[in-house]
Amino acid sequence: MITDPGRTPPSVELHVHVEGTLEPELIMELAGRNHVELPFRDLDDLRARYAFDDLPHFLALYYANMAVLRTADDFAAMTRAYLERAAVGGVRHVELFVDPQAHVARGVALEAVVDGVAGALGDTAPGLGITTGLIACFLRDRPADEALDVLRALLAAGAPLLGVGLDSAEVGHPPGAFGEVFALAAEAGLRRVAHAGEEGPPAYVWEALDVLGAERIDHGIRSLEDPALVERLVRDAVPLTVCPLSNVRLRCVDDLGAHPLPEMLRRGLRVSIHSDDPAYFGGYLDDNYRAVTAALGLSRDELARLARHGVDAAFVSPARAAELHAGIDAWRGAG
Ligand code: ADE
Ligand code: ZN
Q1: Is 215 tagged catalytic?
Q2: Cα 143 vs. chain centroid, distance in angstroms?
Q3: What is the pLDDT of residue 6?
Q4: Residue 329 to residues 38, 213, 268, 333: CA-CA distances in angstroms?
Q5: Spans of the chain below 50 pLDDT
Q6: Can you give the residue ranges of every domain in the chain?
Q7: CB of 19 closer than 6 A to ligand 1?
Q8: C-alpha dihedral, 306 to 167 to 223 to 310, nearest 10°
């Protein structure tokens, strides 16, 4: 619940999976509308499953719940609900992840996914004062050939993409296998990001940079284990999109008080904070800001610095970056 939006800066959301914004109530509503049988009795029974041992445990529920998404309208409803909630929490720019393969693999047309999500970004975000971009992520635990087919289909369909990403179960699935996919994306003029160093080792972050040409690393918290990698990330000012509540809920860190965020800032890393899968991890972007403020005692200046890093990492024009920076500076000055 939002108690005081003034206590969190106007922000940029660069790491949120649209399917991870699918709230339990909407799951029930869409299941009813689409006559989808769910493997739980009711809302309470569903909510009881939101305690996770690790990333693969969470992903099992995340993918299972997608069964209720059938039509372009379903994808649009989910996207609109997210944008409305984000706006209330002070989000001014969103680069939204979507997992097209997860839907195509269960028989949903690629057009329904793209038309629904991109359509809602186009018709709802401007009225909320939010600028947006869409990033199609590929599932690293499925074959790279399948990812290549989906990317070719997205390009052939003229999908309005800002970029591509890499997500899903990390350990045992190093980024290197997706070199050809990311090379094609680069050729097509798309931006490139990749999840790495969430549960997986620093070697995966190196691969994401060197083989995929990733311009941002999603999570990257395990980078601290490798001083040479930290040096590289600092030297090249590589942005890391860190998701504090996610890291706790997926047990990548023991609790928020033990989160490496302050150490990452001390080491000069370009860290910004984000929400990952807010419907599953206990909070949206403003909730993440509030949670780290409480647990780590961050000052208003430090929150503004995190928010500014988000703007610096965003794939926006210099003019839009200047507007977003100005909003953050005004917020800091008003404190
Ligand atoms: N897909 C959705 N959330 C994810 C996460 N935290 N890590 C990897 N893949 C994901
Ligand atoms: Zn993520």
Answers
A1: no
A2: 22
A3: 66
A4: 47, 32, 21, 6
A5: 1-3
A6: 9-316
A7: no
A8: -10
Q: What pLDDT is stored for residue 2 in this prediction?
A: 47
- Please report the beta strands in the chain, taking only residues with DSSP state E, as ranges in sequence order: 11-17, 91-98, 131-139, 163-167, 191-196, 216-219, 239-242, 270-273
Of the bound ligands, which one is closest to the alpha carbon of residue 60?
1
Ligand 1: does its nearest atom lie under 6 Å from the Cβ of 246?
yes
Q: DSSP letter for 168, please.
A: S
Whether residue 167 has its Cβ less than 6 Å from ligand 1: yes
Angle at 233 between CA 230 and CA 237, to 5 degrees: 140
C-beta separation of 18 from 237 below 8 A: no
How far is 49 from 65, CA to CA, in rounded Å? 11
Q: What is the DSSP-derived secondary structure letter of residue 142?
A: S
**pLDDT, mean over the chain:** 97
- What's the CA-to-centroid distance between 112 and ligand 1, angstroms? 22
Q: For position 55, what pLDDT does the model report?
A: 98
Kind of pairing between the strands at 91-98 and 131-139: parallel
| CA-based nearest residue to 311, from 36, 122, 94, 75 | 94
107 CB burial (10 A radius; 0-12, 13-18, 19+): exposed
Q: In terms of C-beta density within 10 A (0-12 exposed, 13-18 middle, 19 or more buried), how is residue 28 classed?
A: middle
What angle do helix axes 318-333 and 300-313 make, rounded to 10 degrees? 170
Read off the tokens for 252: 């990548």
- What topology is assigned to 9-316 in CATH? TIM Barrel (3.20.20)
Q: Look at residue 1 in the predicted model and tell me its pLDDT.
A: 43
pLDDT in tens, 192-239: 999 999 999 999 999 999 999 999 999 999 999 999 999 999 999 999
* Annotated catalytic residue within 170, 198, 207, 215: 198
